[in-house]
Design brief:
The chain has about 350 residues and is of the alpha+beta class. It is built from 5 helices and 19 strands.
């Protein structure tokens, strides 16, 4: 390998200069040109020094005479129009040589945004034994974001990607947020990797959505809420949990999120599993409060280490129907509750 991380390189076809940021294998490297990173084959790049040396040096501009500083009208540059293709997952297989054979070692995943919208996303990677990874971040327009690596052998653990997308700048005509699930199908992955080898391509793309969904009318939201089965179920760490069927289609002005009030038996659950149940319950009753046009709502989260409170406040910051919320001392709740005030729509 004649390239190392940090080396300056030149793209042979476009003559753009970049930097090597990762060594993928003995045939490919990851380069960064501008603010974009992408994989290239070694025969597509070269060191830039010979190109710089052979370039003709431009002569210094001629000295201007009095009066020549008046600018002439310049022709307008043609605007570059991009076609929005939505948001997708990009998978880059990393090959490993073992003697005479070549096998896939890792699958690198990027989230690609080919829209003009700035998005926020909540990402979770689930395996057979539970959630392996969780992150929240932003996805800028016409940009990509590195998510994670998945070991090729981990395909036997049925990896599942869970996404919740929202707009960085809320738009009343578009949905507040929406959920997408992508499951890895080993047979499909094997087929796509073989096709990449034949075509000598680097990545394969899996579309998540073509267009960000529009806002749903309140009547439709209410209909969906009423169709939800009484006693919602969650399967976490192989354990099926049924929430208490306490009038799930009616809003609550006071919601207690202590886990013992949500499920009958929470023994053996990890802190992450308990937090997931509490946040799902909160989101459900937050949607109910908004659809029923409640003026206010109190959520009891307790004090503890403050993780549940922080997650609740992060959701409230992204909810345009929320006017403001306070977490101050209250004679009844102490500091263990947040009071939410909604915008009044007539």
């Amino acid at each position: 390998m004649k390239y190392e991380i940090g080396d300056r390189i030149l793209l042979v076809h476009s003559k753009e200069e970049g930097t090597v940021v990762d060594i993928i294998n003995d045939k490919m490297v990851m380069v960064e040109v501008g603010n974009t990173s992408f994989p290239v084959y070694l025969d597509q790049i070269d060191f830039p020094y010979f190109h710089r040396f052979t370039q003709k040096k431009t002569a210094p501009p001629p000295r201007k005479l009095p009066g020549e500083e008046i600018r002439t009208e310049q022709k307008k540059k043609h605007e570059v129009f991009r076609t929005e293709k939505g948001v997708s997952l990009s998978m880059l297989p990393v090959f490993q040589h073992d003697g005479m054979e070549e096998g896939v070692q890792l699958l690198k995943f990027h989230l690609v945004n080919e829209t003009s919208l700035a998005l926020q996303f909540h990402f979770q990677l689930w395996m057979k034994n539970g959630m392996e990874l969780e992150m929240r971040n932003e996805l800028l327009p016409w940009n990509h974001f590195y998510l994670t690596d998945v070991a090729f052998e981990a395909l036997n653990d049925n990896p599942r990607f869970e996404f919740t997308f929202s707009l960085k700048e809320p738009n009343p005509k578009l949905a507040r947020n929406f959920h997408k699930t992508w499951k890895m199908k080993p047979k499909q992955i094997f087929q796509h990797v073989n096709e990449l080898r034949i075509r000598r391509d680097a990545t394969v793309s899996y579309p998540l959505f073509d267009k960000y969904p529009e806002w749903t009318p309140e009547e439709t939201i209410q209909q969906k809420i009423e169709q939800k089965p009484v006693g919602s179920q969650y399967t976490i760490m192989g354990k099926t949990i049924t929430l208490q069927p306490d009038s799930p289609v009616e809003p609550k002005e006071e919601l207690d999120l202590h886990i013992e009030n949500l499920i009958k038996d929470h023994r053996g659950l990890s802190n992450i599993a308990i937090l997931a149940i509490q946040l799902n319950e909160f989101q459900h009753y937050l949607d109910l409060a908004i659809s029923h046009k409640l003026p206010r709502m109190v959520v009891i989260h307790g004090i503890g280490k403050g993780k549940l409170r922080e997650e609740l406040h992060a959701i409230l910051k992204q909810t345009p129907e929320v006017n403001y919320y306070v977490n101050e001392y209250h004679p009844k709740y102490g500091y263990g509750a947040t009071e939410i005030f909604f915008h009044s729509y007539r």
